[in-house]
Design goal:
The chain is of the alpha+beta class and 961 residues long. It is built from 19 helices and 47 strands. Strand 11, helix 13 (392-400) and strand 12 (405-408) form a beta-alpha-beta unit.
Length: 961
């Protein structure tokens, strides 16, 4: 007699009832065990082990061979929603297929990253899509839909958005505070997450390491107050690696780890990624917190329910594994996925400049392809293992013929000498093999360097010395590569070997600094901080410093010049190595192209004016000189496995470039705001708030910029309001001589001076469409825009509002290349004055600020403002309505200092004596007489933390409470 399966395994029952049944069968200890990233099996119920978290930004990462698509910022440059959906489908399918052969592969995918590319020096720029919330959220919706699949109740994979919230710096990333005023929070940072969640294709989010408004993201009230209100689905919140421990260890936010895990769990964290694959530490902390009354079983059940809900949607508890359970190993590296990788790489190429019709290159052109990245197909920290690899050199040789293409890398060729002799790479004693454990590591950060090869030695005869390729990657990072292609690296034993196929790892062991010292230099190893030295005939790193002489056999620019001189055209391929300078844990310090690569393009240009510069990079550069001196420039992110073929097809004109910049390219470092300044409104960041009248700060290339080999006309822009929807349309025609894609962009410019003190975007992207048009073909593009997309967060009344007045619709090919304009009145209600006498003022509800930051009112909820610049700062509140009059003011504040209030000719100072701790708030008052509608300036002096200001009439509230 067959036993009936338990209700949680019955696909015919409602999901909630299935989860209820399974939850009820679990013991408290079993439930607690499910809260770590690596959950153990519950064998008595036939429940398998489960892992939250599988990296999949542009392909399945870390788990071995997989299709590798362009970096996320490159996918962002395609501006192509449907392409992102198809890439998501391919990545989700390969994740399923890889899990079928390796159960370490997870189906809870930590992708995409929707942090906005606010600042181009952010080390993880490569992971985001765009600086704009509309474009970012549109692409995130598409990618997550592809990952999720189109079944109504079962999911191919369960995507998690990273990194909640306002996270754009690696510098002090676990202790820095992102001060995010309410308007920036609602209009910018939250918008990037919201659309994907509301679209129903997101399983959860991952909080970021940083603090927002003084409170760590892992105890953020916004998880409850915002995220979980956007959908009826259960959302799984997965901590970032080690972040729960950071709450105590680095952030010092809680005194004990038990308090920290309890607070995170109550705030909404459901899965704790901490202490690697060992769950015992986190499980122990949760159990102790439960016994201490810091948690209730209901808190634990809520988190477990969310995880079980996701696992049920993945089909885990269905008898047949669900509709996505049937997969084949052939789904990995499928021919369709290879074609898609090529299509994505082609669509990601952005043509920045093309004067003198240098591009496309004609058939039969003799090409010199030069530069440090000319024969490279680089991967990044979140790449899979390449199955196929195409470099620009490969692509150009395949397209134009090997006899028509010459190559010069441009590395400096050097020998190194110290007191003991010349450095030499000895031959291996046995056959060279692969680095142990190099494929399929759950955490590549744990991979050790190779010790199976002999260390470098020294020799007396320079003829026996090894010739190294020396490259300066900028910002003090150099690499040395031996003749066999292996990079010098340092393993745990401290010896220097030519052992690495490429730079990589969590701590890169292949970069060195050349520090001038006397008549030579010291060679400092970046990974350990030690110096290269010789002991007992072997080369290692140690505290002792040894002087080296670098003998230059050939400068890279000389080789480049020779190759360029005899060519019909030169293609210089420059850019970054994603593991060096500007990566996770490391922000860049400059937009400048490294000096070594500056030398190379200048040498090529001097030898042959017909030179194109291709920037292959994870981020923008400031290349004003190259723009002025070279006829053609292109940019592409690292394009994955098909990067070289794609670039060659674009250069040859087989494909007309149609990528568009997903972020502003600034002309110089001086144009950048401070990296830690998150107030994009106050400091006029991104194309949204950049001052259009500041001629000295015009970007080198604006947001949305990108040229084509064809030309396009824009005509007949129409716009009409229908209820709560704005309908707009215009026609695009290919007026050129070749078929090509065009990326049509629709912006809205809100009314100017809608209210005193209100700064709205100069222009705001509200729609885009990438279309393919044959020669002379036209397409009518129609857009339906909810008016909510045009609203701003009204800090006077804590609500969304539509600014009254006339809006301009701007249609064109970039944020600056506007072809059509149409005005339309949208009739928003007048923005009312602040009900200041009635409601008072929240300190964070200011219109403008200077020298302040937002901090936490308590550890769990609420905000306050404090001064940061020399202990003084100022807030401006416009249009404060004091009605018939007020006679007193009271401030709710903690700390110690003073609060000055100025409204016209009325001014007063409220002294705040020491209140105790930073969360010990008290009310302090003073006489303050004002009436009517006035602007109010509030100055903070000292260590005061201001939460709220209230006003009173008569004698009530005056003095200190």
């Amino acid at each position: 007699m067959t036993e009936n399966p338990p209700p949680f395994r019955d696909p015919g029952l409602p999901p909630d009832k299935r989860v209820d049944d399974l939850l009820a069968r679990l013991t408290t200890d079993e439930r607690v065990a499910l809260l770590h990233q690596f959950t153990p099996p519950v064998e008595r119920l036939g429940i398998a082990a489960f892992r939250t978290g599988q990296e999949a930004l542009h392909g399945v990462a870390w788990m071995g061979p997989a299709t590798v698509f362009p970096q996320a910022v490159g996918l962002g440059a395609t501006w192509h929603d449907d392409l992102l959906r198809r890439v998501g489908e391919a990545v989700g399918t390969e994740a399923r297929a890889m899990r079928a052969r390796d159960d370490r592969v997870g189906l809870n995918l930590w992708a995409p990253t929707v942090n906005l590319l606010r600042h181009p020096l952010w080390g993880r720029n490569e992971e985001g899509y765009a600086e704009d919330p509309h474009l970012t959220s549109a692409l995130a919706v598409a990618y997550t839909h592809g990952l999720r699949g189109d079944h109504p109740t079962r999911w191919r994979t369960a995507p998690v958005l990273k990194h909640w919230l306002a996270h754009n710096n690696e510098t002090h990333r676990d202790t820095s505070n992102s001060s995010v005023r309410p308007r920036v929070l609602h209009e910018y940072d939250l918008r990037a997450f919201r659309a994907a969640v509301e679209a129903g294709a997101v399983a959860g989010v991952m909080p970021a390491y940083n603090l927002v408004n003084g409170r760590p993201n892992h105890v953020s009230p916004y998880l409850r107050e915002q995220l979980r209100r956007w959908t009826d689905e259960e959302l799984l919140v997965c901590s970032d690696a080690g972040a729960p421990s950071n709450l105590v260890d680095s952030e010092k936010y809680f005194d004990s780890h038990e308090e920290a895990v309890a607070a995170a769990l109550v705030a909404g964290v459901d899965s704790f990624t901490d202490h690697g694959t060992d769950p015992t530490v986190i499980v122990g902390r949760i159990q102790r917190a439960l016994r201490a009354g810091l948690l209730t079983e209901a808190d634990i059940d809520a988190a477990v329910r969310r995880q079980l809900s996701v696992r049920l949607r993945l089909g885990e508890f269905d008898p047949d594994g669900g509709p996505y359970g049937a997969v084949s190993p052939d789904d990995i590296d499928a021919p369709a996925h290879r074609e898609l990788a090529l299509e994505a790489a082609e669509q990601a190429v952005v043509l920045l400049k093309n004067d003198d019709a240098l591009l496309p290159l004609a058939e039969g052109t003799r090409i010199a392809v030069v530069g440090l990245l000319a024969d490279e197909c680089k991967t990044d920290w979140y790449s899979g293992t390449l199955i196929h690899r195409s470099t620009p050199l490969d692509g150009l040789r395949d397209r134009f013929g090997a006899d028509r293409v010459v190559f010069a890398e441009g590395a400096d060729r050097v020998r190194l000498k110290c007191a003991a002799g010349w450095l030499r790479v000895p031959a291996p004693s046995g056959p060279a093999g692969r680095a142990p454990g190099a494929v399929g590591a759950l955490d590549p950060a744990l991979l050790a360097g190779r010790t199976d090869l002999p260390p470098l030695t020294v020799c007396e005869d320079p003829a026996d010395a090894t010739e190294f390729a020396l490259v300066d990657w900028g910002e003090g990072a150099w690499t040395l590569r031996a003749a066999d292609g292996r990079y010098l690296s340092v393993a745990d034993d401290g010896f220097v070997r030519a052992s690495a196929d490429r730079p990589g790892g969590w701590v890169v062991q292949e970069t060195f600094g050349l520090v001038e010292h006397g008549k030579g230099c010291l060679i400092k190893h970046a990974g350990t901080g030690g110096y290269v030295s010789v002991a007992a005939g072997a080369v290692k790193v140690a505290a002792e410093k040894e002087l080296f002489t670098v003998e230059v056999l050939e400068r890279g620019e000389d080789a480049v010049a020779r190759a360029a001189a005899d060519a019909d055209a030169v293609v210089v391929v420059a850019g970054n190595d994603p593991h060096i300078n500007g990566r996770e844990t490391e922000d860049r310090t400059t937009l400048a192209l490294p000096p070594h690569q500056e030398r190379l393009w200048r040498a090529a240009r001097a030898a042959n004016p017909r030179t194109a510069l291709v920037l292959t990079s994870s981020y923008p550069y400031a290349v004003a000189d190259a723009h002025a001196e070279l006829p053609a420039l292109l940019w592409t992110a690292h394009g994955g496995q098909a990067a070289g073929t794609a670039l060659a097809r674009v250069l040859a004109g087989d494909v007309s470039p149609a990528g568009r910049l997903p972020q502003t390219w600034y002309a110089a470092d001086a144009d950048l705001p401070d990296l830690l300044d998150y107030d994009i409104i106050g400091s006029r960041q991104t194309y949204l708030y950049a001052d259009p009248h500041a001629a000295d700060r015009r970007p080198l290339y604006p947001f949305g910029h990108g040229l084509s080999y064809s030309s396009f006309a824009y005509e007949d822009l129409t716009a009409a309001r229908e209820g709560d929807v704005l309908r707009a349309a215009f026609t695009v025609t290919n007026t050129g001589s070749s078929a090509a894609d065009e990326v049509a962009q629709l912006y809205v410019r809100p009314p100017r001076n809608a209210a005193a003190g209100l700064t709205l975007p100069d222009r705001q992207l509200v729609a885009h469409r990438r279309v393919h048009l044959a020669t002379r073909e036209s397409c009518r593009l129609e857009f339906e825009l909810p008016l909510s997309k045009l609203e701003f967060w009204d800090v006077r009344h804590d609500r969304w509002a539509l600014a009254p007045g006339t809006y301009d619709l701007l249609a064109g090919a970039s944020s600056h290349d506007i072809r059509l304009t149409a005005p339309i009145g949208l009739g928003g209600a007048p923005i009312a004055v602040r009900p200041t006498r009635r409601d008072g003022l929240a300190a964070t509800g200011y219109d403008t600020q200077s020298g302040t930051e937002i901090v936490d009112r308590t550890r769990t909820t609420g905000d306050a403002v404090r001064a940061v610049r020399d202990g003084s700062g100022e807030l401006l509140f416009c249009a404060c309505d004091f009605e018939a009059g007020v006679t007193g003011v009271s401030v709710e504040a903690a700390g110690e200092g003073a609060v000055d209030l100025i409204a016209g000719s009325t001014a007063t100072t409220v002294t705040v004596p020491p209140t105790g701790g930073r969360y010990d708030y008290a009310r302090h008052g003073a006489v303050f007489a004002a009436s009517g509608v006035r602007d109010l300036r509030v100055r903070l002096r000292g260590a005061v933390r201001l939460a709220r200001i209230t006003f009173t009439a008569g004698e009530e509230g005056e003095g200190t409470a």
